[in-house]
Structure formats: structure tokens, C-alpha cells
Write a structure and sequence with these properties.
This is Geranylgeranyl transferase type-1 subunit beta. GO terms for molecular function: CAAX-protein geranylgeranyltransferase activity; metal ion binding. Keywords: Magnesium, Metal-binding, Prenyltransferase, Repeat, Transferase, Zinc. InterPro entries: GGTase_I_beta, PGGT1B-like, Prenyltrans, Terpenoid_cyclase/PrenylTrfase. Its cofactor is Mg(2+); Zn(2+). This protein is mostly helical. It has one domain (about 20-355): Glycosyltransferase. It contains twelve helices and two strands, in the order H-H-H-H-H-H-H-H-H-H-H-H-E-E. It has helices at about 20-35, 45-60, 70-75, 120-130, 140-150, 170-180, 190-200, 215-230, 250-260, 280-290, 295-305, 325-335, and strands at about 345, 350. Strands 1-2 form a two-stranded antiparallel sheet. A hairpin with a 4-residue loop joins strand 1 and strand 2. The protein starts with 20 loop residues before the first helix and ends in a 7-residue tail after the last strand.
Length: about 350
């Protein structure tokens, strides 16, 4: 029989009616110093994990606790560079690798035979650099954007890496965010990307990752945020003449609002459990559409607090241990709920408004 002093480590939910900002800051500061062993299998995505930490601290108004110069130097060390301008047309993408394990040295002639640059890693790298206030004039944006065109396919979709991989809305979003952050849209054919996105809207109003697939919260965010970044839809559509919009706004609004479950949280698909991260993926869609006013905010807040850990951070479901991914999207969700002490969120870029002030 267990003694009363022993405690199940899975019982990490903090019984609190308030957002525990100080605990969350300490959680991220710990992750900034060293990642627990559980993240060994995520080594390939180290830049993405760093994005969750740095952007999370920014949203929590605690960016002063990091060494910005050291962060910039570390992030820039992942960028791939061609040996000469001619290599920009060799089909490869010269962006950022996600970790040291996907970064290979050039051969004796300075040629990157194994180039692990990835669209998602490049988005995360640029987002981090924007957050810490790095001077973007020092970034070789021409190389990034010129080579990024090699990843766009005839149907408008994007591969994430030049060696081939799945093609879906996630990587159109990454490409659009990269162009927006660099303030240069030469890296993609926006019209082709738009047509691919429109082909992904399902009969129920949501968007699937590829044409004909089931509507999904993450895919819907990628679609709507990409269209907004590319200038094809306006903010707060439902208060304007949405009948002329290129997407079916009433169906999308209805589908998005139906994702709020009886426990107050948001689900990513019909008949799924509520999950912390969808408070952002769906909440951000509703913010762009102008439908966030219809969210049951009190019940959403209540659900999120059941996923708040006593160790800081958020878990996917109530009663689980926190992780960086769901912690970050828990912070973004509370920013969307206008929690006191948090910086406002730029929903279409997934970073704070302050960080995007110069874009």
C-alpha cells in the first residue's frame, strides 16, 4: 500500500483557477538550458523545439532571460550555403537544417552533397531570429527564396526537402510564412499555391492536408493562415462581404465552431477528444475569420487549466505530463484569450505581435 506522501508522477495537473505564468517561465528556462532525455527521439527537430522555447518566453514577456547573441549564432549555424550561385539551380533547397544530425559538411570541393535543409526548420529558424530582433538584412534571403522555388510542385504544393517527401498544406504554410518574414514573395508562385489550398476545402467547410482528405484543425489553420499571409483573404471576414470570398466562409465558420466540445476544449477532428493544441489551431482560424467572439471562452479556459501542470507547461490531455509542443500552444491559446501578462499573438505567423512589428 502506498503511503500518503507518495505521489503518482502522472498526477501533475495543477489545481488552480489561474494561469501560473511564473511556473511556465521556469519550465521554459529549464528547457532552454537542457532538454530532458525524453526528447532524444526529437533530435532531428531541435530547431523546432528551440522555437517553442524562445517564442514561448517571448509570449510570456520573459525574453530577457536568454542570451540573444548566442541564440542567433546557434540558429545561423544551421543554414546551408551553396558554394557558388550556379548551385541555386541544382534542385536543392538552401535553407536551415533542423539539427546537427541532419547537417552534413560539404565535400572537398565545397559542394553540399547531402543537404538536409527543411522548410519547417527554416520557418522556425527565421521565426526565432525575428523574435530576438536579429537584423534580417544580414540574412542571405535571395539564396533561401531562389532555392525554395525548387520545392514547389506543378500543382502548387510544396515538398519540405529537395530529396522528396509528403506534399501537403503544412509546407505551403511554411513557404508563405518564410516569404512573409523575409518580406519577399519571389520564393513561391502564390496563384498556384492558392489553387492547391482551395482544392483542399472539404464538403463540411474544413480543410484536409491534401485534396479529398478529412478536415483537420491543423490543416485548416495552414490553409487559412496561408491565404491571409498571401493577401487572398482579409482579417475579420465575417464582418465584411464574405459572399465574394474565395473560400466557403459560412461552412468553415460552422465547422470550426463545432470543434469546441462539451468539456470546453477544442478537438482537431469530429469525434476526437479535446486537445490543448487545438485551442490554438482552431482558435487562430476563428480569430482570422472574426469568429472568435463565438467561442465559449470560460469553458475553454477551464479545459486548458485542467491541462496545466504543477511543473509548469501544459499537457495534451488532462492528467498527463507536460511537453514543449502542447505547452507552447497552451501559451498561444491563453494569449488568444487575452490573458493578463502575456504578449498579444500574431496568429498567422505564430509569434508575438511585438516580434512582427517591423514586418
Amino acid at each position: 500500500m502506498e503511503s500518503s506522501s507518495e505521489k503518482d508522477p502522472m498526477e501533475s495537473v495543477l489545481s488552480s483557477s489561474s494561469f501560473e505564468k511564473d511556473r511556465h517561465v521556469k519550465f521554459l528556462q529549464m528547457m532552454y538550458q537542457v532538454l530532458p532525455y525524453n526528447y532524444q527521439t526529437h533530435e532531428i527537430n531541435r530547431l523546432t523545439l528551440a522555437y517553442f522555447v524562445i517564442s514561448g518566453l517571448d509570449l510570456l514577456a520573459s525574453l530577457h532571460s536568454i542570451d540573444k547573441d548566442a541564440v542567433a549564432e546557434w540558429v545561423l549555424s544551421f543554414q546551408a550555403h551553396p558554394s557558388d550561385e550556379a548551385q541555386l539551380n541544382n534542385g536543392q533547397f538552401y535553407g536551415f537544417s533542423g539539427s546537427r544530425t541532419s547537417q552534413f559538411p560539404p565535400d572537398d570541393n565545397g559542394v553540399l552533397v547531402h543537404n538536409g535543409s527543411h522548410l519547417a526548420s527554416t520557418y522556425c529558424a527565421l521565426a526565432i531570429l525575428k523574435i530576438i530582433g536579429y537584423n534580417f538584412s544580414k540574412i542571405d534571403s535571395v539564396t533561401i527564396l531562389t532555392s525554395m522555388k525548387n520545392l514547389q510542385q506543378p500543382d502548387g504544393s510544396f515538398m519540405p526537402i529537395h530529396t522528396g517527401a509528403e506534399r501537403d498544406l503544412r509546407f505551403i504554410y511554411c513557404a508563405a510564412a518564410i516569404c512573409s518574414l523575409l518580406k519577399n514573395w519571389s520564393g513561391m508562385d502564390k496563384e498556384k499555391a492558392k489553387e492547391y489550398i482551395l482544392s483542399c476545402q472539404s464538403y463540411d467547410g474544413g480543410f484536409g492536408l491534401i485534396p479529398g482528405s478529412e478536415s483537420h484543425g491543423g490543416a485548416t489553420y495552414c490553409a487559412v493562415a496561408s491565404l491571409q499571409l498571401m493577401g487572398f483573404i482579409e482579417d475579420d471576414i465575417i464582418s465584411k462581404n464574405w459572399s465574394s470570398c474565395i473560400i466557403n466562409v459560412p461552412l468553415l465558420l460552422d465547422w470550426s465552431l463545432q470543434r469546441q466540445a462539451s468539456d470546453g476544449g477544442f478537438q482537431g477532428r469530429a469525434n476526437k477528444d479535446s486537445d490543448t493544441c487545438y485551442a490554438f489551431w482552431i482558435g487562430a482560424v476563428l480569430r482570422i475569420l472574426g469568429g472568435h467572439k463565438f467561442i465559449e471562452q470560460k469553458s475553454l479556459r477551464g479545459f486548458l487549466l485542467t491541462c496545466q501542470s504543477e511543473y509548469g507547461g501544459f499537457s495534451k490531455f488532462p492528467g498527463m505530463l507536460p511537453d514543449l509542443y502542447h505547452s507552447y500552444y497552451g501559451f498561444t491559446a491563453f494569449s488568444l484569450l487575452e490573458e493578463s501578462g502575456l504578449n498579444p499573438l500574431c496568429v498567422e505567423l505564430g509569434i508575438s505581435d511585438i516580434a512582427t512589428s517591423e514586418i
